[in-house]
Amino acid sequence: MSTAKRDPATLQTASGMPVIQAMNDTLTFSAAEKERLRELGRRVAEIAALPVQKEKADLWRRHNDLETREPVVFIDPENGWNECIPASSLRCAAPMARVWEMFLLKQIYWFEVLKDDKVIEPYFDVPYSYSDTGWGLELKREHGNQGQGSFIMIPAVEDYDRDLPKLHFPEIVIDQEESGAVLALAHEIFDGILTVRRKTAWWWSMGMTRHFIDIRGLENFMCDLIVEPDNVHKLMGLLCDGWLARLDFLEENGYLALNTEGTYTGSGGFGYTHSLPRPGYDPNRVTAMDMWGFVESQETTAVSPDMYGEFIFPYHLKIAERFGLNCYGCCEGFDPRWKYVRTLPRLRRVSVSPWADWEMLPELLGGDYIASVKPAPSPLAQSVMDEDAVRAELKRAVAPAESCVLEIIMKDNHTLGGTPRNAARWVEMAREAIAGR
Known about the structure:
Blueprint: H1 20-23, H2 31-48, H3 51-64, E1 72-75, H4 81-84, H5 95-114, E2 123-126, E3 130-132, E4 140-143, E5 151-154, H6 160-163, E6 172-174, H7 176-190, E7 195-198, H8 209-216, H9 218-227, H10 229-252, E8 261-264, E9 270-271, E10 292-295, H11 305-311, H12 313-320, E11 325-328, H13 338-341, E12 347-352, H14 361-364, E13 370-373, H15 387-398, E14 405-410, H16 421-435
Parallel strand pairs: 1-14, 2-7, 10-11, 11-12, 12-13, 13-14
Antiparallel strand pairs: 3-6, 4-5, 8-9
């Protein structure tokens, strides 16, 4: 979708960082906009101060440290937020003000309406404004007739011998002036209300197969595993070394922030834990070993387990070795490739997608790993949710609760069928399933 046609409140990168340049924002808020943000900030602070937030944080911490079998519940409506909080309901006009307003409204909605186990914290995090130089070749997409929705990647590397030498590691370029201006504006608005912090989510996943496909195209990627195996390793090696170089840069320059506490980790769950950061860590020089890491390869669901083990896993292993705790998986079924995944160092959270074998959880994960169970979001996409289907799937999801460390995660919602109530009702039904297990 063209960013020029999107509402600023939804204009952000995969890591959640607002794209300030794309919004053409002057960072000039009106007095009314500042007061609107302060009003919402005060409500978030009130919610964050409630005793239930500490109770939820303690539950997540015991959960992540494998000390309880009490399941936790979390829902992120994702694109369904546009139905829960329509853009037309926002009062701010300045692009960045709308982004901040939407963020604050989401925190309030989570507590007042969704009522899951998300902890509402008294923080307002401001990321750096940055870009990176890319992998060295222009990446192009070909969309359908509408110019949105599904697309295919136009291969940037068409010939390995000719094009692979053109690739290079992406370099992060931070706009220090703009970063400082945004942080100062946040302090002006929220000081005395919420704690303003510099905190940037520099990545979502380091799984690399998505980047491979961005560069080479999906069909080429799948064929290359058979006809270009050496070049697959060369490109995967380059991608892996590029991510490791990014980690080095972020560590050496003090740009990393802990993703423990209320930071979303992996493809589900939050980072609360006593296991991180390491004892005696330097808060001004956070390293990956103080953080949760995350690798996945949902693009390779049609690839055999041993082919994953040969072409993808060695590079996942190199990434995971850098982190203090690790998460694996998103939409792919973890169980066929478990003999490889289980050897990731310090593995703690495993995504159990609708395509995994849930009956294998007690045997494969037991109480040694967090089973991040993801019921299918499709029932929530209907204007009238099929509650019988939801109950049946939730009953199946909580069945291993006595022997496993479960979190029940609802995500990947592209729509709520025009019925925002579906999201809150799903949480209620998840609670009922847990209580009745």
